[in-house]
Prior knowledge:
The protein has helices spanning 16-25, 47-57, 72-78, 83-92, 128-137, 157-164, 202-209, 280-295, 313-325, and strands at 8-11, 30-33, 38-43, 66-68, 97-102, 119-123, 141-142, 170-173, 184-187, 193-196, 243-244, 255-258, 270-273, 302-304. With 328 residues, it is an alpha/beta fold. Strand 2 and strand 3 (38-43) form a beta hairpin. Helix 1 crosses helix 5. Mean pLDDT is 92; it is low at 220-227.
Amino acid sequence: MTLILTTRLISAAKGGPREAAQCLADGGLVAFPTETVYGLGADATNAQAIARLYQAKGRPAFNPLISHVATLADAQRIAIFNENALKLAQAFWPGPLTLVLHKTKDCTISDLATAGMDTIAVRMPAHPVAHKILQELGRPVVAPSANISGHVSPTTAAHVREDLSGRIDLIVDGGPVSVGVESTIVGCFDRPVLLRPGGVPREEIERVLGVKLAPRPAAPETSGPHPLAPGMLASHYAPHTPVRLNADSVTSDEALLAFGPPLPNAKPAHMLNLSPRGDLIEAAANLFSYLRALDGKHARAIAVMPIPDHGIGEAINDRLQRAAVGRD
Length: 328
Ligand code: TXA
Ligand code: MG
């Protein structure tokens, strides 16, 4: 796509949220920090703005978007909350949890955002900048991660600029995000289902619900007329460099993404350690920026040490597996 716009960058501390809300109200595309990753926002009721958003990201229009809201009351205007959904919202909102629910009859969200489905994904972000923007605008904002579709999600304003400069109107810089992986997505129907592991660990959700979450369908993007999580394409979050998982050794022409104590006798061309002390939360926060940094070294491959699969480790491993599938 040709470059079409001058992308302005504004600090969150210098009136960013107010300017962002104005720009969104005018149909603009605004990247802003959430606690998980930077999102690329558009007014969720403005079909034209959402069409531009899909184009700016290069995202297939059959892949629906999450509507972000400031309050539970705002969420209840667009989505029907059953008992489980209410329990989860009360326990984890604001925070890194997205609920997929049936739309209300008078839901004002553009059909383009929900890709024509009768369900909607809703989330109340905890980041103060995201919250302020939503409050100022007074309408829900759709926001996928602010990267070119299929690329690694952005955790800083600089990452957003690398991917989307010239394609969007405004970037609000609120510093690096805290969580570092996207929200957990739970489908709240008869049996609650984990559609995407993310910032809230599965174990915490199961504790609140008192039941195990059903596993997400194996190939949701291709299954049936109503795919449960159409965005869960196998190849996603992909760096350009091939990714090799569960590495217990590394060659001198590889880059090493380490976790915990270093590999014995390892002399990789480049190395970054997600968390030398083996802390999964710290590892999640570093994941996408370290993947981007190692991708920039043009090594033969990025070797990744094993990451434990519990807590937020499930989301880290999910993203790494997608990164390892690579892109055509
Ligand atoms: O943490 C996050 O969730 C970030 C920040 C910006 O809020 N957003 C994010 O959005 O990750 P995105 O567009 O990259 O991922 C949204 C996912 C996609 O996999 C999409 O298919 C799924 O949510 N989704 C959206 N609406 C859905 C629906 N009605 N049913 C099932 N899945 C849905
Ligand atoms: Mg994304």
